[in-house]
């Protein structure tokens, strides 16, 4: 069973109906442009996600992990980061990547299988996607310890680190060790958990008996639950936790209470474990619709604005699709690249053998790849 | 005889194990309601209940560590690790605890734990979903390691592994899950092929191919292609990696004089290294050529678009056969 939506007990600044509410601890003052900016982000990342899902269905991606339903958690937290902050994502943080200025095509490279997610984490202060559940929480903590050693905490210009994780991940040893470390060293790291109610098929109560945010207390740092479908609230709560961290107040845990509207990944079949009524309940809490209602209600945006954003989304989706189809397969020999910083002689010898072997298949003058040029008759994989 | 896929055969074998002994448990991530990501445990929770087929929290060290405790309490846990690359969080519990407790206790504590791991590549997956970590476990005394290559073996071997009083790491070739074969569900267990024995799956006289799991089919196809070239290859399915049963391999090499070992895992210190060394010791005077290995490269498993280049295939096997005959 998943926990039902808590009516109170989480930070909310925008009701599902789009009414602005106030919270004494976590309020934000936003300009009209900022409100509209959030809306734009939400729509664009949802659109990229939908395009990627379609590309997977058409066989262009091996797999896709959709963020549908989790846009507010990702955009709110992502926009709360300052340029100097470092983010450690899972494999689902396409919205956070967007906020960091990472090209949406980047994630597609990994899911298409043209590389393993290659990137320089320092280019956008966004680490590579982590597939092993929980591993990145320790990396984030260590990075935060480095920030601390560098004397980059203690004031408003300081750096903070954010680690993304799922509700399932909270069971992993690595995650619990990260909590222990972060607390013991007062590392400037914020653990941002998107509780989307399921690991793959396992509901949150298979990982915990207490609401996740309350676990933080046992490790000795604050935990807060926020309405994960409310982009203003996730923004406010994350900004505050990051600021505390950068001022030297140590780690924090944020539980963004949200819902995965789609499958776990494109290879999952959620009908086996999920009830339709649940989906309906969450559809009414949609992060985009509630901000749209707010913008309309406050007369911050009209049909022209929404049309403009939709057109921009169409354009972006088309660019992503085209870019995906144009991603070239890597050259076979790149298998041997970058295994070591200083290449070893035995591996270079393997590369040579591979090169010599592959060239036999090209000798026929046909430049197509080996698998389509069987060396012998009847030869097939 | 019924024709079924490897996934279905394993499912039938697990069902039978649950039926036979009420102390048998299945535990792992998503094994219950979902039936496992490959549906190998499909329907078992429905029929045996949540106390026998357990959806665990998402924690591999936890899965194996608690299985050890359950085994000490008289249960026979069958653990599923969802994918090869996720066994490492459990690695400490497996190699430092599971493998050693029988030894430390002077045989007083038995740990009949089975760890099922879908392994190997060829399905176009993302990182950590295509690895072949068998050598790590074979290197650890106290564990037994086996791998099936076809539905018939899948059905019997999983039951034999469950019946074993030793911990067994059970590797399932994930890219063969959907391939069909004949399974005899009625044959009595006494007639089953013994768990820790290799098997000649295609007799031949000119050279020997030995491999296991996903590579068995590749070897059989290679042997067929070689037959067209007039070469008669013998194919041996190793089935058991620890203990290693090389008697059929020795016998074969003494007749054929040539051996090629095939596996997906990187070559360095892989199964092929051990086999080459032992065959050289035993069959030195029968060998017409050095033992050759066709393996993955000594690199991380590459991105999906390059896995066909990485994985041993028919062409690479036949190339090795050519080289063997070139000596
Ligand atoms: C160590 C490890 N074990 C198993 C898996 C397979 N797996 C991938 S995602 C997933 C569920 C993750 O759930 P959660 O942490 O809640 O994140 P979500 O996908 O819901 O965002 C599992 C079991 C994995 N990637 N890593």
TrEMBL record, chain A:
Co-factor requirement: thiamine diphosphate
Residue ranges of the TM segments: none
Family annotation (InterPro entries): Alpha-ketoacid_DH_E1_comp, DH_E1, PdhA/BkdA, THDP-binding
Lineage top rank: taxon: Bacteria
Pfam families listed in its UniProt record: E1_dh (PF00676)
Entry's Gene Ontology BP terms: branched-chain amino acid catabolic process
Keyword terms, alphabetized: Oxidoreductase, Pyruvate, Thiamine pyrophosphate
Domain Dehydrogenase E1 component: 43-314
GO MF, one example: oxidoreductase activity, acting on the aldehyde or oxo group of donors, disulfide as acceptor
UniProt xrefs under Gene3D superfamilies: 3.40.50.970
Protein known as: Pyruvate dehydrogenase (Acetyl-transferring) E1 component subunit alpha
Automatic annotation (TrEMBL), chain B:
Superkingdom of source: Bacteria
Residue intervals of the Transketolase-like pyrimidine-binding domain: 4-179
Any one of the GO BP annotations: response to nutrient
GO molecular function, one term: magnesium ion binding
Keyword vocabulary terms for this entry: Oxidoreductase
Keyword tRNA-binding part of the UniProt annotation: no
Protein name (database record): 3-methyl-2-oxobutanoate dehydrogenase (2-methylpropanoyl-transferring)
Organism: Cryptosporangium phraense
